[in-house]
Design brief:
Shape of chain B: globular
Radius of gyration of chain A: 24 Å
Strand order of the largest sheet of chain A: 6-7-8-3-9-10
Oligomer: heterodimer
Shape of chain A: elongated
Largest sheet of chain A: 6 strands, mixed
Distance between the termini of chain B: 49 Å
Order of helices and strands of chain A: EEEHEEEHHHEHEHEEHHEEEEEEEEHEE
Structural class of chain A: alpha+beta
Structural class of chain B: mainly alpha
Number of strands of chain A: 20
Helix content of chain B: over 70%
Radius of gyration of chain B: 24 Å
Order of helices and strands of chain B: HHHHHHHHHHHHH
Strand content of chain A: 25-35%
Number of strands of chain B: 0
Largest sheet of chain B: none
Helix content of chain A: 10-25%
Distance between the termini of chain A: 32 Å
Largest interface: A-B, 24 and 16 residues
């Protein structure tokens, strides 16, 4: 059973089509992240699911009930906002209980839920304070608490961590992961931060220009990106792209510049194959060539090294292409001048430069 | 001393001269009025208007309050005072409330044709009263409440609404939209969000609006004269009647005392609430 099922959703602001024919099934207990650059429509999609935004076409089902035309409060959802949106004149307790009081929940039940949520989020000491007396992280907890007490079927998060500083963000990320695990809740979460997306999600929907480019598990998204955009957007530093062409019997190799590299059983998706391709190689799949035959390697000039602690990013110039390689610090220290690089060819992705789709 | 600093010094002196001159310009008439109100009639007639009262007394104030005459009516300005209060309280409450609801609706709810409504509000805020006086008189006559308390109250509410709505709209537009979204998800509707979430955050702007409306309505003369009716004439209209009355000797001391009594309420408001006024204006201007 799907907890949330969005079908054929579209939405336009005047002539601008911000959501185009979106399909998004979310299973119960799933942590779905909507990921994309600003303006891709991810927040609009979340608002549409919440019922805060009218839609032009399509349907939204939550828990097998068509809620396309329901009020936000009748959809069985709770939401956490980027700016927290705590009611500034109410105490923390007032903030947590507001929605329950509106729905005339019995007093004892309200007390019970506040106690449960505040203990879970470790805000039970703060119940009588006003939001202005809380730190950013505490406000965030209260905002999450306000969603939790609703005991909704689906929790919606709109960039909840983007107002926190880096350290706090990492802490809250772990906290969110713990909550998801503990409660088994269904969550739809909007962010433009790919690390948040990769660490939290059970499935990620990468959006661009009002469309979902790929909806898959973090691993699939990272290892087999469906489009050039997804490949470039997910991963830091970004995937290296090289222009080349397919050669040989049954397109068994790829050539760019003077080098031809073998494609050992690349899983072509459609059989039909374009001649020109874009080769995508992750930085961690480039290594310094040592005992590998010269013909299977690429020659490049060292540009500079970026030590990151656990590993070092090496930047190389190879013809017209600039390549990033993730190297171990020990290896990186010795590098200078002209080097030979080896690509892990069983890990590369190939894309059609025309359609930008994965081959 | 360099030429530049000499120039700066001359500029500074010029500034202080100007400030002093401005102070005198505004304070001398006030001092004259206060001094005159504390004199006896004889003293007013025989001495210069700039002379200080020989033996200050509040006799003229008491007379102005209790028994100053307008024509044959010698009830003093306290009659007008209570009329003004009766007009003021409902007018202020209704116009501030209506303005805040309108401003809230226009800033946080997608009202059909909100831009057109805003345009009319802006126009309404800038239309001179004189233009619509006659049609208004006609309209009130037609529905049969012309020259009555409800009539003058509705006029004040109508004329106050554009500015009040704009004031509140701008204030509420500065509050985060997500607050209303959160409340909607919590299940609150239009009115509950207004009374539970928005109004508690509006204390400063409510004070500003109340001050604006109170002083505006209290100081109004024209509308009171035309719409209030003989039984409800506000203090300002009565003051004018007292000071232009042509029978007998003109009692300048009583007239000035009546004028001061009339001006007292708005003055008191400014003195006691200036702090909130400044705070409220800036609270509305700065986002967040």
């Amino acid at each position: 059973m799907s907890a949330v099922s969005v079908r054929g959703l579209s939405k336009a602001f005047g002539p601008l089509r911000v959501l185009r024919d979106i399909d998004l099934p979310v299973e119960a207990g799933e942590f779905t992240v909507l990921l994309g650059p600003s303006g891709c429509g991810k927040s609009t999609l979340l608002n549409a699911i919440a019922g805060l935004e009218d839609i032009d076409g399509g349907t939204i089902e939550i828990g097998d009930m068509d809620v396309t035309h329901h009020e936000p409060s009748k959809r069985g959802i709770a939401m956490v906002f980027q700016s927290y949106a705590l009611y500034p004149t109410m105490s923390v307790r007032g903030n947590l209980s507001f929605g329950l009081r509106v729905k005339s929940t019995p007093k004892r039940e309200v007390e019970k839920r506040i106690e449960w949520a505040s203990r879970l989020l470790q805000i039970d000491e703060l119940l009588d304070r006003k939001p202005s007396q809380l730190s950013g992280g505490q406000r965030q907890r209260v905002a999450i608490g306000r969603a939790l007490v609703q005991q909704a079927r689906v929790f919606l998060f709109d960039e909840p961590l983007s107002n926190l500083d880096a350290k706090l963000r990492t802490e809250m990320r772990v906290e969110l992961k713990r909550l998801h695990k503990e409660l088994g809740a269904t969550i739809i979460y909007v962010t433009h931060d790919q690390i948040e997306a990769m660490t939290l999600a059970t499935r990620i929907a990468v959006m661009r220009g009002g469309r979902i480019e790929q909806y898959a598990t973090p691993d699939t998204l990272y290892e087999q990106p469906a489009t050039l955009f997804v490949a470039g957007f997910v991963g830091s530093p970004a995937m290296n792209f090289l222009r080349g062409e397919l050669v040989g019997d049954a397109m068994r190799a790829v050539r760019f510049g003077a080098v031809t590299l073998p494609l050992n059983g690349y899983p072509f998706q459609h059989g039909q194959v374009a001649r020109d391709v874009v080769i995508g190689v992750r930085p961690e799949h480039i290594s310094l060539a040592q005992d590998i035959p010269i013909e299977a390697t690429v020659e490049a000039d060292t540009l500079f090294m970026e030590p990151m602690g656990a590993d070092t990013l090496g930047w190389f110039q190879c013809g017209e292409h600039r390549l990033a390689a993730r190297l171990s610090p020990q290896v990186a220290r010795g590098i200078n001048g002209r080097v030979r690089l080896n690509f892990a060819m069983d890990q590369v992705s190939l894309f059609d430069p025309e359609s930008e789709a994965r081959l | 001393m360099t030429a530049a600093s000499a120039q700066a010094r001359i500029g500074r002196i010029g500034l202080y001269v100007l400030l002093l001159w401005t102070c005198l310009f505004f304070s001398i008439p006030l001092l004259v009025v206060i001094a005159t109100s504390l004199k006896t009639s004889d003293e007013v007639r025989t001495f210069s208007i700039f002379s200080l009262p020989a033996s200050p007394s509040f006799a003229a104030w008491v007379k102005a309050w209790l028994s100053a005459c307008t024509g044959l009516n010698c009830g003093g300005v306290h009659v007008g005072f209570w009329n003004s209060v009766r007009i003021l309280i409902p007018s202020v409450i209704i116009s501030v409330f209506a303005g805040s609801v309108t401003g809230y609706a226009l800033s946080h709810w997608r009202v059909r044709g909100a831009n057109i409504i805003m345009l009319f509000l802006l126009l309404g805020a800038f239309i001179p009263y004189q233009v619509i006086l006659y049609p208004l008189v006609k309209m009130f006559s037609t529905i049969g409440i012309y020259s009555s308390l409800p009539c003058i109250i509705s006029v004040h509410v109508l004329f106050g609404l554009p500015v009040m709505s704009l004031l509140f709209r701008n204030y509420y537009a500065g509050l985060p939209e997500e607050l209303v979204k959160a409340a909607r998800i919590d299940g609150a509707g239009f009115w509950r969000i207004f009374f539970w979430v928005m109004l508690p955050m509006s204390v400063n702007i409510l004070i500003v609006a109340t001050i604006l409306q109170t002083t505006g309505i209290w100081n109004d003369y024209l509308l009171g004269l035309i719409f209030a009716g003989r039984d409800n004439i506000p203090m300002t209209v009565q003051l004018n009647a007292i000071s232009t009355t042509s029978t007998g000797v003109i009692e300048y001391n009583v007239n000035t005392a009546a004028a001061l009594l009339t001006a007292l309420p708005p003055l008191l408001i400014y003195f006691t609430s200036g702090r909130y006024f400044v705070r409220g204006i800036t609270a509305g201007a700065v986002k967040g």
